[in-house]
């Protein structure tokens, strides 16, 4: 695992080396074992790299320069041994056992098509002197990050984290109002956007090429992301892989042979991700996802496992992990997290470079900090809930559909609208209806309901957080537009499959994988996610939702796969979402302590925030009228982020 930066057509050529080293240094945590640089003055291309040594520790220095090709790379190609054999048969010669060298030779042999042959997680930039071009790519599911920006003078910046791009200039770019709205709505900024104008995430399964030969050296002015000038090369990322293809080819049945093949494929995905020349461990929650990974790993090695619990018993499930660890005979380490996680807020903001409200980020960071004492690689069960429909929202969509279909479409609106007016609170209703607050949800379209279910702050709360002026500046923009765009690509009529695709394009890369990457890399640990092996994704995504959801149970296909490896008390356990006791943690502090923690004085200096409305939300939480700890947390995180920013230009 590593970090890299690329400067293409740097406008300040005489300062290229200084800027390159400055940008690369921001990624030392991603690669503390080695660093390297490449500068080609004639082509105006410069690469920087930091390395975390995992395979072939003594070799693998980057940038790798060979055969007029220069490569910087972050990730792991799990089928590199097989690809190496193929390339040797084609006449290629190797000097190491690193997958980095395999990637370079694969490019030399197949060009851009090489990415179709990789099984793994990867982000890389490759300069081909013969083609006079730089090619940048990100893996299919977005496991490894890539950020890029094109400055007004034509300079192109690429890096593994936002902080690397921000280090190029002392002048920070302006915040994006749309991205701010996205953050407060969803808790993260969905790709391809970032919190800053002019800086982008390269979306999962995308790549782009910069033709160096057609670029000219820009001026030394305007070194901040702006709208492209007509004279400069336009960067247009292209999608090379999309899981929509699998979802749009529905399969309504699964044979016993397919289950057997799926079991073998999952076993292979797990075992290949244990390859390393350093100690390997695993996250263990005690659920079926992490348990099947640990069970498979345990066949060939004595596994070190790690879990977290909370100081509030009603949220603490550490005993579940300990029971599974004892059953599998692992070397288990658990930590207990308390409300003092608030003290790590500055580290959280520095870790993510943009506001990120997932309240499990700090506990995960603390757990990997403990794990680093024993291991350098950790396997995680992330991706299984998206792949096998494990989230509660999927089950609610199914129930919602059944209720809607019980009435003719023509009378749904008057019936549900009337019931919503008569029973606005509905404390007596089933949990599904309480979760939607009112029966109005049953009259809404699928996108509206799913977007609301995935939002940490619904529209009525956003109206209290923001000033009318900020809302007007959005010109009707809503984060729901991301959901609408992705849903339009799915021809499968099952709304659960549409929701699944939306999660694969938004929540998975924007929240889950971002959290896993930053919290592990902050402690110089490489995280690997077997369930996101693209072969598994292509095998199981076509399966109809009915095959994975029945009543309160979900992930039925995965439970069948796991049944030969794990006992029934693991495979039959209902999923419990991992949540921290944020509501209670806020109430453990006095109101004045909370106001101080939330740094409302920082928000007052910005014209976007309605301080009276925010204070009203605090009162509502403390009175018990609402449980909105996540709302208060999202505001707290943003205030900490804003405090670290230079004064923003008024929009």
Helix content: 40-55%
CATH architecture of the largest domain: 4-Layer Sandwich
Strand composition percent: 5-15%
Number of domains: 3
- SS elements, strand count: 17
Strand neighbour order, sheet with most strands:
2-3-1-9-8-10
Query: How big is the Rg?
Result: 25 Å
The CATH topology of the largest domain is what?
Answer: Glutamine Phosphoribosylpyrophosphate, subunit 1, domain 1
CATH superfamily annotation of the largest domain: Aminohydrolase, N-terminal nucleophile (Ntn) domain
Describe this structure in words.
It is an enzyme of class 6 (ligase). One of its GO terms (biological process) is asparagine biosynthetic process. Keywords: Amino-acid biosynthesis, Asparagine biosynthesis, ATP-binding, Glutamine amidotransferase, Ligase, Nucleotide-binding. It is a single chain. The chain is an alpha+beta fold and 651 residues long. The two termini are 39 Å apart. It has three domains: 240 residues, Aminohydrolase, N-terminal nucleophile (Ntn) domain (Glutamine Phosphoribosylpyrophosphate, subunit 1, domain 1, 4-Layer Sandwich); 203 residues, Rossmann fold; 71 residues, no CATH class. It contains 29 helices and 17 strands. Strand 13, helix 8 and strand 14 form a beta-alpha-beta unit. The strands form three sheets. Strands 2-3-1-9-8-10 form a six-stranded antiparallel β-sheet. Strands 4-5-6-7-11-12 form a six-stranded antiparallel β-sheet, with helices on one face. The protein is globular.
């Amino acid at each position: 695992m590593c970090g890299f930066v690329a400067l293409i057509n740097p406008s300040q050529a005489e300062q290229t080396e200084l800027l390159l080293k400055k940008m690369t240094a921001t990624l030392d945590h991603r690669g503390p074992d080695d660093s390297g640089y490449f500068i080609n003055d004639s082509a105006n291309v410069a690469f920087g790299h930091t390395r975390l040594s995992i395979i072939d520790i003594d070799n693998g220095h980057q940038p790798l320069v060979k055969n007029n090709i220069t490569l910087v790379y972050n990730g792991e190609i799990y089928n590199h041994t097989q690809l190496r054999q193929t390339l040797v048969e084609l006449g290629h010669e190797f000097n190491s056992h690193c997958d980095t060298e395999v990637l370079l030779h694969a490019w030399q042999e197949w060009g851009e098509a090489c990415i179709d042959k990789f099984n793994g997680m990867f982000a890389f930039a490759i300069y081909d002197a013969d083609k006079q071009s730089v090619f940048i790519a990100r893996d299919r599911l977005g496991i490894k990050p890539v950020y890029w920006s094109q400055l007004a003078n034509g300079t192109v910046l690429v890096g593994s984290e936002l902080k690397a791009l921000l280090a190029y200039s002392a002048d920070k770019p302006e915040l994006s109002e749309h991205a701010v709205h996205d953050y407060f709505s969803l808790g993260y900024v969905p790709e391809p956007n970032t919190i800053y104008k002019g800086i982008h995430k390269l979306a999962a399964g995308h790549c782009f090429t910069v033709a160096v030969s057609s670029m000219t050296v820009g001026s030394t002015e305007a070194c901040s992301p702006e709208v492209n000038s007509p004279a400069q090369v336009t960067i247009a990322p292209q999608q090379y892989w999309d899981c929509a293809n699998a979802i749009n080819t529905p399969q309504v049945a699964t044979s016993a042979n397919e289950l057997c093949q799926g079991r073998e494929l999952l076993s292979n995905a797990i075992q290949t991700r244990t390859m390393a020349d350093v100690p390997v461990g695993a996250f263990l929650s005690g659920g079926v996802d992490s348990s099947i990974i640990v069970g498979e790993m345990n066949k060939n090695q004595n596994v070190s496992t790690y879990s977290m619990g909370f100081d509030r018993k009603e949220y603490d499930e550490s005993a579940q992990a300990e029971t599974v660890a004892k059953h599998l005979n692992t070397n288990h380490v658990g930590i207990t997290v308390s409300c003092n996680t608030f003290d790590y807020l500055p580290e959280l903001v520095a870790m993510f470079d943009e506001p990120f409200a997932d309240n499990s980020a700090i506990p995960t960071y603390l757990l990997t900090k403990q794990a680093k004492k024993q291991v350098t690689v950790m396997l995680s069960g992330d991706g299984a809930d998206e792949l096998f429909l494990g989230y509660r929202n999927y089950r609610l969509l199914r129930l919602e559909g059944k209720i809607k279909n019980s009435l003719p479409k023509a009378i749904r609106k008057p019936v549900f609208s009337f019931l919503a007016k008569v029973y606005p609170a509905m404390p007596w209703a089933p949990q599904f209806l309480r979760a939607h607050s009112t029966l109005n949800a049953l009259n809404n379209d699928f996108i509206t309901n799913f977007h609301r279910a995935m939002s940490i702050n619904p529209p009525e709360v956003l109206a209290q957080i923001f000033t009318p002026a900020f809302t007007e500046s959005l010109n009707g923009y809503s984060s729901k537009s991301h959901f609408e765009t992705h849903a339009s690509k799915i021809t499968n009529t099952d709304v659960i499959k549409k929701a699944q695709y939306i999660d694969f394009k938004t929540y998975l890369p924007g929240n889950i994988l971002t959290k896993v990457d930053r919290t592990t890399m902050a402690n110089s640990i490489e995280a690997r996610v077997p369930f996101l092996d693209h072969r598994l994704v292509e095998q199981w995504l076509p399966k109809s939702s009915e095959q994975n959801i029945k009543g309160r149970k979900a992930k039925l296909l995965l439970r069948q796969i796991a049944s030969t490896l794990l006992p029934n008390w693991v495979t039959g356990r209902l999923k419990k979402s991992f949540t921290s006791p944020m509501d209670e943690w806020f109430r453990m502090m006095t109101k004045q302590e909370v106001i101080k923690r939330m740094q409302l004085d920082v928000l007052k200096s910005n014209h976007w925030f309605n301080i009276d409305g925010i204070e009203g939300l605090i009162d509502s939480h403390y009175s018990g009228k609402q449980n909105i700890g996540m709302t208060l947390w999202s505001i707290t995180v943003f205030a900490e982020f804003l405090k670290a920013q230079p004064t923003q230009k008024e929009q």
